[in-house]
């Protein structure tokens, strides 16, 4: 009945089975006269999703999370992961061969200074690390009297005999009916920023920036319509796009040639070298540009200028066409979500469904919209204890039956040509406990606090983050992830530079789209998260002395009323919830075609 086209449930290779690879890798390091090597979970552009050919960390260690790093020394080896992935890494990695260490606090460099010896030679691939990451490694080596060595070719690739070929996803044109702005106009704005930086040219090392600037999309990585590519934009004159020509049809090539010269990726290094030889100062994105690019520019006599890519901020502020598109995408998605939630409520209490059934059903309802291009990330469907694993991904081995008394946490999203969605709902299967209701209501109150926030222009995500946590803190609990991330327009579901988190230093601007997703996770018991996407809008306040902003909630899906302890809500919170549910019903009901789902929606959105 249901099936998944965009997701698989196969168990990745892991554990002891991979330990022979570690021995082969150490032999390769010895052959190169290296005493250690750093393997990040990264491609040349620091993408969140990387092509199979770039999954070196997973191939060597078995760890498949979206963030991590391994360090192999002659005697010791460690995998470094953040709080989201501690449980997952413990299950995937051979604990006899690898230590599992924190990725952030303390950072891997701390471990290096304790384990490196004087005279050691630690290798790294400068194409897979940013310059600031390379500098941190160099400082750690210096502290231990060791040397950091940039390698010409990656030793993992030397032993990975079945390494997949690089991807060749076809490039498509993202027309003005979706982008709302032609390339020439975008390039004018970018060149204005380049002139403000006082540099001769800007390297777009982030493929998302290239896709946005030149109104193209691709299919090189999972779940994000990304064409792997680079661009070089001079302060005036014609830019160059570096992309594998095999990905281009005649029409996409013609589209690119209207605003840029089109070169093969291999031409990037000689082009930069030529420019640098003339003493040019070239801006690089500190967050995504490879250390190899800085080294190349500097060695040819140019001046690499590292900073934040101005395109990331331009791209984050959506125009009126993109905003209209995302509203339409969310309304379409709401119908699929409602059909799914009604189905799960009918089918789950019998105990016959599994997590995989839920993932397949939700994707099927989305595909039935006729507009789904992909899921925006692999659906997280965790029931009972699996719900407590923040970035859980169900496999055939971990697949759990959904039982009465469970909480089912389902976090999913869709890629439509007019917008990207991301939504989490926590569903009570049968009767929830008093503790579940208490924790859910605290999460809901934090969610509502963000949704109702009024804040002056210039406010950062870090300033708002506490609002989402206050009611959890009052009970002595918290959650370990950020409250929200930026979201692209038929691009990455996790888009910088703005976010709602302790680390969110970028001011929120009107037109930005961010998630609002506080949660609570009780290890080995259950997980709770409520997530909607929010659009930053202006709002009028009588007597306001400066411009003031607010959020417009884009996501439209019922929040499980059975989990709400109504007595804990203030009048204002209850009014927000009832208004939200009335809006969900008003928008979604006319688009439903069966009476059973309409009836379910009426009950799920009834006034509390």
Automatic annotation (TrEMBL):
**Residues annotated as domain Creatinase N-terminal:** 21-152
Q: Which of the seven top EC classes does this enzyme belong to?
A: hydrolase
Q: Which cellular components does GO assign to this protein?
A: cytoplasm
**Keyword Protease annotated:** yes
User: Sorted alphabetically, which InterPro entries does this protein's record hold?
Assistant: Creatin/AminoP/Spt16_N, Creatinase/aminopeptidase-like, Creatinase_N, Pept_M24, Pept_M24B, Peptidase_M24_C, X-Pro_aminopeptidase_P
Pfam families, per the entry: Creatinase_N, Creatinase_N_2, Peptidase_M24, Peptidase_M24_C
Question: Where in the numbering of this chain does the Peptidase M24 domain appear?
Answer: 326-536
Residues annotated as domain Peptidase M24 C-terminal: 550-608
Instruction: Select a single GO molecular function from the record's annotations and give it.
Output: metal ion binding
Q: Which UniProt keywords apply?
A: Aminopeptidase, Hydrolase, Metal-binding, Protease
Give the Enzyme Commission number.
Answer: 3.4.11.-
Its family remark reads:
Belongs to the peptidase M24B family.
**What is the protein's given name?**
Aminopeptidase YpdF
- What organism, scientifically named, is this protein from? Bradyrhizobium ivorense
Question: What gene makes this protein?
Answer: ypdF
């Amino acid at each position: 009945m249901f099936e998944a086209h965009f997701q698989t449930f196969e168990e990745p290779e892991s554990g002891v089975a991979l330990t022979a690879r570690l021995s082969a890798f150490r032999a390769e390091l010895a052959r190169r006269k290296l005493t250690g090597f750093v393997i990040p979970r990264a491609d040349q552009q620091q993408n969140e999703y990387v092509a199979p050919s770039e999954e070196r960390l997973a191939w060597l260690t078995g760890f498949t999370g979206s963030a991590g790093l391994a360090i192999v020394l002659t005697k010791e080896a460690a995998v470094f992961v953040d709080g989201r992935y501690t449980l997952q890494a413990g299950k995937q990695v051979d604990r006899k061969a690898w230590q599992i260490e924190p990725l952030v606090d303390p950072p891997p460099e701390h471990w290096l200074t304790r384990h490196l010896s004087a005279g050691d030679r630690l290798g790294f691939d400068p194409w897979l690390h940013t310059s600031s990451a390379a500098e941190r490694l160099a400082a750690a080596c210096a502290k231990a009297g060791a040397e950091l060595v940039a390698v010409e070719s990656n030793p993992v690739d030397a032993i990975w005999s079945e390494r997949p070929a690089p991807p060749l996803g076809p490039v498509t044109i993202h027309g003005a009916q979706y982008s709302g702005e032609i390339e020439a106009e975008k390039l004018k704005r970018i060149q204005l920023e380049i002139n403000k930086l006082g540099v001769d040219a800007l390297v777009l090392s982030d493929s998302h920036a290239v896709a946005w600037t030149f109104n193209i999309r691709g299919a090189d990585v999972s779940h994000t319509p990304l064409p792997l590519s680079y661009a070089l934009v001079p302060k005036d004159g014609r830019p160059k796009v570096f992309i594998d020509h095999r990905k281009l049809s005649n029409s996409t090539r013609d589209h690119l040639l209207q605003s840029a010269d089109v070169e093969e990726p291999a031409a990037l290094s000689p082009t930069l070298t030529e420019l640098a030889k003339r003493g040019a100062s070239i801006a690089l994105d500190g967050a995504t540009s490879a250390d190899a690019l800085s080294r190349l520019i500097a060695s040819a006599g140019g001046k690499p200028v590292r900073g934040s890519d101005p395109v990331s901020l331009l791209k984050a502020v959506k125009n009126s066409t993109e905003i209209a598109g995302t509203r339409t995408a969310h309304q379409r998605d709401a119908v699929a979500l409602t059909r799914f939630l009604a189905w799960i409520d009918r089918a789950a209490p019998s105990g016959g469904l599994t997590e995989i059934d839920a993932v397949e059903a939700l994707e099927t309802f989305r595909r039935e919209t006729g507009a789904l291009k992909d899921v925006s990330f692999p659906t997280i469907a965790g029931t009972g204890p699996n719900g407590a694993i923040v970035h859980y991904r169900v496999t055939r081995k971990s697949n759990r039956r959904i039982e009465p008394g469970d909480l089912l946490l389902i976090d999913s999203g869709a890629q439509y040509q007019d917008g990207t969605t991301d939504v989490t709902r926590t569903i009570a299967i049968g009767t929830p406990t008093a503790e579940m209701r208490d924790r859910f209501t605290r999460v809901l109150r934090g969610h509502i606090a963000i949704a109702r926030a009024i804040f002056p222009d210039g406010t950062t995500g870090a300033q708002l983050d506490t609002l989402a946590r206050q009611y959890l803190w009052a009970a002595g609990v918290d959650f370990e992830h950020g409250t929200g991330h930026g979201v692209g327009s038929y691009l990455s579901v996790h888009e910088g530079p703005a976010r709602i988190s302790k680390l969110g230093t970028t001011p929120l601007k009107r037109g930005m789209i961010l998630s609002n997703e506080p949660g609570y996770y009780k290890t080995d018991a259950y997980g709770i998260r409520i997530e909607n996407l929010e659009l930053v809008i202006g709002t009028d306040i009588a007597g306001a002395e400066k411009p003031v902003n607010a959020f417009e909630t884009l996501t439209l899906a019922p929040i499980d009323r059975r989990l709400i302890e109504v007595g804990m809500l203030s009048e204002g919170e209850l009014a927000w919830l009832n208004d939200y549910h009335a809006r969900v019903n008003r928008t979604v009901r006319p688009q439903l075609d069966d009476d059973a789902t309409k009836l379910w929606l009426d009950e799920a959105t009834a006034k509390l």
